[in-house]
Amino acid sequence: MAEITAHSPGRFCWADLGTNDLDGAKKLYGELFNWQFRDVPVGEGMGYTMALVRGHEVAGLYRLDEKEKAAGWLPRWQAYISVANADAAAGRVKELGGKVIAPPVDVQDAGRMAVVQDPVDAIIALWEPRAHIGARLMGEPGSICWNELLTRDIDKAASFYMKLFPWEPRTMETGAGPYTIFNFAGVDEAGMMLMPPECGHEIPCNWLVYFMVEDCDATVAKAEKLSARIMKSPTDIPWVGRFAVLQDTQGAVFAVFKPSPRSPAETPQ
Fold this sequence. Notes:
Layout: E1 12-19, H1 22-33, E2 36-43, E3 46-53, E4 56-63, H2 66-70, E5 76-82, H3 86-95, E6 99-107, E7 111-117, E8 123-129, E9 144-151, H4 154-164, E10 168-174, E11 177-184, E12 187-194, E13 206-212, H5 216-225, E14 229-237, E15 241-247, E16 253-259
Parallel strand pairs: 1-4, 5-8, 9-12, 13-16
Antiparallel strand pairs: 1-5, 2-3, 3-4, 6-7, 7-8, 9-13, 10-11, 11-12, 14-15, 15-16
């Protein structure tokens, strides 16, 4: 797939991992997704690691600092949505009943970002791109291919995101209950479903990041050998593909997906 040169406002553009064990994360994800890594300085005593596929940036990793740990941040994958203006988008979040967890801030010359929480408590990052647009590849092995909101109030969440972004929903019935797909300009952008009952109330609503793989079962088997936990075993979605949900050794949860030959994954921007 061709290199991405821009992400339209309202599209998912990036994801990064905050972890307590950066070296361990590089080993796990490097082996799972054939990632190479490039470390970049982002401030005194701070660093950020770019994950690369064929030399193109596809995701980020960083070590949680003491301030984040003191604030209760746990290892996690964080999804980002591109916006034209981070300050305006953060202000709109508050108008719609959400919260600004981290106010807009410049990330050197890379861009401007904010971290916000929807009215049902799922956290999402907003990214106003400058030098760094986000992922240069999406929808191919080793890169982000889908984002899915697990929420306890689908109506409240849908209302929030449809007012914040130019998304149009359509809902289908599945064996696990209703599933909503948010479409933007003719492209399916993200999914939403009720939090599975087995998750319990201790797990907060969240955005789950999916990475495409060439073989779902082989990836899960490799992850297990690398001490990752299988949260959901490989499962078929008829006419769509096969997916699994994993948890890394520090507790961050992510999903892997192999599309069906009948549903080639494309991520036009």
